[in-house]
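Hello support,

Our group uses your service weekly, and this is the first time we've seen a run hang past the timeout. The protein is Universal stress protein. I'm not sure whether the cause is the sequence or the server load. Input pasted verbatim:
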Amino acid sequence: MPEPTAPVVVATDGSPSATAAVRWAAADAARRALPVLIVHVVERWPYGISAFPPQGWQDAMAEAGDRVLTEAAQAATERTPGIDVTTELAGGTPADVLRERAATATELVIGGRGTGGFAGALLGSTVLRLAGHVRGAVVVVRAGQDGPGEEVVVGVDGSTDGAAALGFAFEQARLRGAVLRALCAWHVPLRTVMPDSAHDVTGIQREQQRVVSERLAPWREMYPGIEVVEEVTHGHPVSALTDVSGRAALLVVGSRGLGAVGSVVLGSVSRDVLQHARCPVAVVRP
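Update from on-call engineer: The timeout came from a worker crash unrelated to the input. Re-ran successfully.
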């Protein structure tokens, strides 16, 4: 378990999305009264084990990394002056380094797109190796997404695996003084939809509402000052969550963490939400 003063760890490669991630991490750390650790990873020579890097290549990469970290630290303190910022230039594989740092962090924040390295693609191999695998929350931010929003949204699917996501979402709503929208979207497979199924659909709606209220009850007691909106809708979860993301400050989804392959652990809903959401997304593992 991380210490109560464990830092918010954010990775940067100097790209616009990484800068947005740094700003998001700094703002969240300020709300939590925690330090920020900004990490830049210099990957090993990428052209095969039989090839040697040109003379001076490693020094040039380290110098470039130092510049990236300096700019990232400036971006963090410009918006949140006075925050405790530490930088680290690390060597190795980005996913491995960030997973290690996340083990003792309050949360891990990464950019969704970038010019290379860990942020080369929104759903590249490194993102899939982190979201759903790392203990706690991995927050993915894209350029233009670090601004304020109206509410914190959390996806509720009725499973007990979502408790960690609910806890993270309630805490984020408390820190921000924001409304928490708990959204449950359900849909009936086509083979079960018949002309006389209106009564069954109504029953499913009532049952989903009951389950959502049941899942939220203990968290409402723990956070009595949070305004909670329960929304149960008939539709695909990805579409419903993406629709509300446009006005959200943060969208929180759970990860079951059942397997060893990123795409399996993350799950199709969380993976597609990461792809299409218009606000930062936190993937929270139990």
